[in-house]
Amino acid sequence: MTRKVTTIGVYGFDGDSFYRALQDAGVDVLIDIRQRRGVRGVRHAFANSRRLQTRLAELGIRYLYRRDLAPPPSVRQHQKLADRASKTIKRQRAELAPAFIEAFENEVLAHFEPQTLLDDLGPGEQVIALLCVEREPAACHRSLVAERLAQALSLEVEHILPDPER
Fold it and tell me: Is the Cβ–Cβ distance between 25 and 127 less than 8 Å?
């Protein structure tokens, strides 16, 4: 089996649909690339680190945390300014600002060696899920990390999306 990268956000899912989506995609290992491993609100409490790790272990999905792949505050500030200028609410953002992308590439991805991520995986871990919070992959840095992995290691990328009716 060839390794594959998937991405998944928290928004748009409830706990049951989130974990079902991971199982349906055949995810072996979930890599949390959030700066902060918690989500506000009862609706998304399933994605808070302890609950997430407990449920993933029950499902036989390994959990890894890679804070080095999260955008630091200096990078997030670029997106915050762009959202403010366009009067876009974070959860309604459809794409990342060019200034954010450039800063993320320079401050995070320039120091990221994709092979080291694969070296941290076991031989049976074939389907990797990159986790962050935004619903739309194009509005989240997880798509940039996935793209880098795809380019550097010739991996297929699939974005797991919530049911559009939710």
Answer: yes
Give per-residue pLDDT as tens, 133-158.
999 999 999 999 999 999 999 999 99
In a domain, 155, yes or no: yes
Indicate whether 166 belongs to any domain: no
Contacts of 53 (CB under 8 A, 6+ apart): 63
Instruction: Please give the structure tokens belonging to residue 140.
Output: 């989240």
Look at residue 43 in the predicted model and tell me its pLDDT.
85
Q: What is the mean pLDDT of the chain?
A: 92
Q: Are strands 4-8 and 156-160 parallel, antiparallel or unpaired?
A: parallel
Helix axes 98-107, 73-86, angle to 10 degrees: 180
Q: Using one digit for the tens of pLDDT, what is the confidence trace for 7-43? A: 999 999 999 999 999 999 999 999 999 988 778 778 8
Q: Quote the tokens at residue 99.
A: 């200034």
Q: Which secondary structure element, helix H or strand E, spans residue 30, and what is its range?
A: strand 29-32
* Separation of alpha carbons 134 and 131, rounded Å: 9
Number of domains in the chain: 1
In a domain, 8, yes or no: yes
Instruction: Show the domain range for 28.
Output: 4-160
Tell me, yes or no, whether 62 lies in a domain: yes
Residue type, 136: E
